[in-house]
């Protein structure tokens, strides 16, 4: 058997590859020959960055319609490429766009896919193994039956992006783009301004839940986060209540974060919340209910009123 071909679905943010796609080049390199697929305009620096992170081949198409229209043209071209080249494994980042592409590929190609994986590997017999969290405490190892290609979507920060240096051959994709697939046009994109560091990049996250009582009390978390150089996150309960924007939400239907320190303030610790922050190195929980599930996972638990404890903590940290 020749070297495995592992493709990484690449999205770009501005003129740089999305950080989550760069992360996936790390397992791709470990499992075989890492190749990137990038559909849409991209500058030399984006291609260079992919090469630096270990892509040896970049399948690239620079037609602007790939980004002017939602996923259909990308899916049509990617499935034609897969049929023609038969890669062994495709890795997708956990972005909304990649989720959409993955689901449509499953329908088009009739193959299975694994979503939400935190690790991917092959066993000595060549069987694909992916590790997937099932709830807060359990990790399952799953595989895909049948012949490749296998499709696996990986969670953020499951792997670290590594600039290993290197050169890549850029192969321009020759699949013609069919106008019939250009049906859903992007009219406008609006970036929601976020204060403080991006949640996914933050080393410290101070997250708040319904225990804060009122939206105005999020100010206390902002002050603590500022003192620690961190970002503010939230549970879905308070996002649904309109206290903070969706961009703050941590959990199964929000962001997956992996900071060094996660301070959960007035958050009960529902499994859907824990799914998004269980990878945090240290967890401090402040909750007035000593039986709150969040304490099962916390390295340090403080039983008490978050509205009293957080300002004191901020004061002490700011005084240092
Ligand atoms: C399909 C699905 C997806 C979901 N996705 C997500 C998701 O992505 N993220 C997410 O967070 N949730 C998600 N949820 C919702 C989740 O199940 C919980 O409802 C939610 O996480 C609860 O938020 P909370 O902890 O803020 O509120 P609560 O569960 O109401 O907990 C509030 C906590 O605050 C404590 N408290 C109250 N007052 C104080 C005080 N003064 N001081 C200290 N502590 C206090 C209470 O003891 C309690 O533990 C999802 C649910 C479903 C069904």
UniProtKB/TrEMBL annotation:
Single GO term (MF): flavin adenine dinucleotide binding
GO terms of biological process kind: fatty acid beta-oxidation using acyl-CoA dehydrogenase
Domain Electron transfer flavoprotein alpha/beta-subunit N-terminal: 6-186
Source superkingdom: Bacteria
UniProt: FAD binding residues: 210, 235-236, 249-253, 266-273, 287
Keywords: Electron transport, FAD, Flavoprotein, Transport
Co-factor: note: Binds 1 FAD per dimer.
Cofactor(s) annotated in UniProt: FAD
UniProt keyword Acetylation present: no
A Pfam family assignment: ETF
Summary of the function given for this chain in its UniProt record: The electron transfer flavoprotein serves as a specific electron acceptor for other dehydrogenases. It transfers the electrons to the main respiratory chain via ETF-ubiquinone oxidoreductase (ETF dehydrogenase).
Protein name in UniProt: Electron transfer flavoprotein subunit alpha
């Amino acid at each position: 058997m020749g070297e495995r071909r592992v493709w990484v679905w690449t999205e770009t943010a501005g003129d740089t590859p999305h950080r989550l796609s760069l992360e996936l080049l790390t397992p791709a390199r470990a499992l075989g020959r890492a190749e990137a697929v990038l559909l849409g305009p991209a500058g030399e620096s984006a291609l260079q960055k992919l090469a630096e992170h270990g892509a040896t081949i970049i399948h690239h198409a620079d037609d602007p319609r790939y980004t002017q229209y939602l996923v259909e043209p990308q899916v049509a071209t990617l499935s034609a490429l897969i049929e023609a080249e038969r890669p062994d494994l495709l890795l997708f980042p956990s972005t909304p766009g990649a989720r959409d592409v993955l689901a449509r590929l499953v329908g088009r190609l009739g193959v299975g896919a694994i979503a939400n994986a935190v690790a991917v590997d092959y066993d000595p017999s060549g069987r694909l193994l992916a590790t997937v969290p099932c709830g807060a405490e359990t990790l399952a190892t799953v595989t895909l039956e049948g012949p490749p290609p296998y499709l696996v979507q990986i969670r953020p920060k499951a792997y670290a992006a590594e600039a290993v240096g290197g050169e890549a051959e850029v192969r321009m994709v020759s699949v013609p783009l069919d106008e019939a697939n250009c049906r859903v046009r992007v009219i406008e994109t609006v970036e929601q301004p976020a204060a403080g560091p991006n949640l996914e990049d933050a080393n410290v996250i101070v997250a708040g839940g319904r225990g804060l009582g009122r939206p105005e009390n999020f100010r206390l978390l902002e002050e603590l986060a500022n003192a620690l150089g961190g970002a503010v996150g939230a549970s879905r309960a308070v996002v649904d209540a309109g206290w903070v924007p969706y961009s703050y939400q941590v959990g199964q239907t929000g962001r997956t974060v992996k900071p060094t320190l996660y301070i959960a303030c007035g958050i009960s610790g529902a499994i859907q919340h824990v799914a998004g922050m269980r990878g945090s190195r240290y967890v401090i929980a402040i909750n007035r209910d000593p039986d709150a599930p969040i304490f099962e996972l916390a390295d340090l638990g403080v039983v008490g009123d978050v509205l009293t404890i957080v300002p004191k903590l901020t004061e002490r940290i700011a005084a240092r």
